[in-house]
Amino acid sequence: MIKRYWVIGGEYEDAAFGHLIPGTETMSGPFDDEHKARTEWTRLSCCPEKSRCATIRYSIAAETLH
């Protein structure tokens, strides 16, 4: 069983994180291992221009390939 990892997210309408603002969606990947995905998550989440905005959120999603 092979896993691939994706970093997904963007800027949300409010701090409830229910709806992304159209056009801000981001998807990075696939990554072969979780460490590489976590590095990308850190880059996206902690960059100075984005870290000032409390409504930007990214997550790591795993995909299992058969």
UniProtKB/TrEMBL annotation:
Superkingdom per UniProt: Bacteria
Q: What is this protein called?
A: DUF4170 domain-containing protein
Which source organism? Answer: Allosphingosinicella humi
Q: Lineage, please?
A: Bacteria, Pseudomonadati, Pseudomonadota, Alphaproteobacteria, Sphingomonadales
